[in-house]
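User: structure tokens for this one?
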Amino acid sequence: KSPFLTMIAEQMYLKRYAKSTIKAYLYWIASFIRFNSMRHPTTMGDNEAELILNHLVNQKKWLLTLKQALNALSLLFKEVIPKPLLLGIF
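Assistant:
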């Protein structure tokens, strides 16, 4: 497991997130990283987040999981990286 994802998991445990939420958020954050060619999240922002969220809606038809993916990315950019997302589509 990556040290970056381990650090996020530890932060979430300290904030008493449910284990199932931690597992789901780590899945979406890892998916976000893979979708963007393994770039580190500190080098990404709104454009990359919009790309994956639009992909989930338009290509995968995963509208029901979109909220969970958006919440995971919001946590990543708000609490881990401190660079809040300013998504114009939501």
